[in-house]
Structure formats: C-alpha cells, structure tokens
Amino acid sequence: MGKLTVRALRAVLVVVLAGSVFVQALMVWVLVSGSDPEDGSLPLTPLRVITILGIGTAQVTLVCAWRLVTMVRRGTVFSHAAFRYVDVIIGAIAAAALVWFAVTALNAPGQRDDPGVTLIMGGIGVAILGVALLVLVLRTLLAQAVARDVEAARMRAELDEVI
Description:
By secondary structure, this protein is mainly alpha-helical. It is 84% helix and 0% strand.
C-alpha cells in the first residue's frame, strides 16, 4: 500500500472519528443537561443512549482500522497480532447490529399502521450482521495467509540448513 493511500485513509479515519466524537459529545450533553424535552411521540432518551452506543461501535471499528492500516504499512499485517483487531471489528459490527435491532424495537410500536418500516429496519439489521459475517470470512482468509507465511518461513529455515 502506497504512502499516499495510507495518508488519505488516515485522513478519512481522523475526520470521521473527530466528527463522531463531536456528535456523541453533543448527544451526551443533551442527555445530561435535559435541554431537549421529549414531546412524547418517541422515547427519545433511550434512542439517544442507543445512538451514543452505536456511535461508540463505529469509533471502535475506526480505531481498529487505524491499527490495521499501520500494520499494513509496516508489513506486519500477516501476523497473529492482526487477529485481535479483526476480532474486535467483528464484535463491534455485531454490537452495532444489536443496537440497530434495539432501535427497531423502540420504533416498532409507532409503526403499527405501517409495519413495512419495521420490516425494512429489521432487514437493515440483518444486513449489518451480514457485514460482520463478511469480515469473519475475511478473517479466515487472513488466517490462511498467516499460516502460509509461517509455513514458508519454516521451509526457508529448513532450506537454509540444507544449504
């Protein structure tokens, strides 16, 4: 991966992380200060808490992506240390799906006249779980690459002994 690509990706990660922290801080401020009273149409306080947690899952993913990009740049991504970050990303995506299902459940009572919205929201939750499964498949590919790298190193060592 080239230096320009790494720098561009890092810039995007920093902007998204900074923006998410800003939004999250504003939402926490609204919750703590009580400056935005609920009008009774939706349970806003639980939705805000769930949204703050959802933003947190995205932030965890961004930090892990930063670490993986660093490993790619150093050429150490094909190591067992990368699994920790990939596993955390999978967990964060699965947590985001659970957060989305909680939003769907909170929104469902207001959608009795139009249950299609709840079905669409449920479908989005399933799609988020699908992303977690896709990252799990990519983790399996990483495991295969690491195993082949270890095997190649072992074979090189054996060949060096023979020579």
